[in-house]
Amino acid sequence: MAKRDYYNILGIDKSADKKQIKSAYRKMAKELHPDRNKAADAEEKFKEVQEAYEVLSDDQKRAAYDRFGHAGTSGFGGGGFNAGGFDFSGSGFDFGSAGGMDFGSIEDIFEQFFGGGFGGMRNRPRRGQDIGVRIQLSFKEAVFGVEKEISYKRGFPEEGEKSETMKVKVPGGIPDNAILRFQGKGHGGFNGGPPGDLLVNIEVEVDDRFERRGHDIYMDAEIDIYTAVLGGTLDVETVHGKTTLKVPAGIQSETVLRLKEKGGPKLRGNGNGDQYVRIIVKVPAKLSRQQRELWEQLAQLPDTKPGIIGRIFG
Question: What pLDDT is stored for residue 77 in this prediction?
């Protein structure tokens, strides 16, 4: 099969610098890695990406390739990789964002994990690969905590793949995109190496009424102009149920009132956070003739400009 252009394989221009080459390689390697991509040609394309990166990330190889094409790389071992039949599926490499891994060429990875060199590598103990699972929580489940049962598949070198089920206790107050790590619950290790970990990524559903910032909760509440002027009470929802909020007379729109300890449980420590209610004064869009006359009369009173009415409208 004819070799493809290395720049096209990585989707970059011939003027790309090393940083752009590495970034393109990382992106393509994540997309095409056989553990993630089950397409029939994924493994072949993955090898092409590795080969392209090996050549273009090396100044000498890249110069020879730019001048002579694929023939120019033959003096460097023919291009491409010979990993000695190394099994990537059990390598323990984490190509997701949870691990924060910054990987370069295949040699860089081997050197980072195994101290460099290929000799005898296949017989060394190797840690199992981590497994990533995502679970979705409702807003209240994230606030108060919940126990969820999850199912996933776990691989072992000699026994093959097994289905696993476990209960996960999610603590109250957990933030969106948090990751819970369960040691030893990932894929089995090789040659006596330890198993990988299970990484449970938490996704919290958005609530139409509430916004959570740490253990505090925020919401908006509308009041009519009469309550804004005269004061009164307002029934508001909290994660603990309904409660009554006292509205002082003359309150301005955008004022924030606090409901003490009506927020979520504190993730670390005792007690609850607070709930903050932003008051939105709803001004009537239409007035009857009688209502307009009354507002006009009120506006003529000496203590209303610039007073409560002036501030609300102005």
Answer: 43
Whether the predicted pLDDT of 211 surpasses 80: yes
pLDDT in tens, 221-265: 999 998 999 999 999 999 999 999 999 999 999 999 999 999 998
Residues 181 and 277 in one domain: no
CATH number, position 185: 2.60.260.20
**Type of residue at 73:** T
Domain residues for 85?
A: 6-123
What predicted TM-score, i.e. pTM, was given to this entire model? Answer: 0.53
Nearest Cα neighbor of 248 from 291, 277, 207 is 277
Is there a domain that residue 231 lies in? Answer: yes
Q: Of the candidates 177, 204, 231, which is a domain's last residue?
A: 204
Q: In terms of Cα–Cα distance, which of 208, 200, 212 is closest to 142?
A: 212
Cβ–Cβ < 8 Å for 36, 95 = yes
Domain count, the chain: 3
Side-chain-side CA neighbours of residue 137 (13 Å): 27
Whole-angstrom Cα distance, residue 240 to residue 274?
Answer: 11
User: Has residue 303 been placed in a domain?
Assistant: no
Summarised one tens digit per residue, pLDDT across range 153-207 is: 998 887 888 999 999 999 888 888 888 999 999 999 988 899 999 999 999 988 8
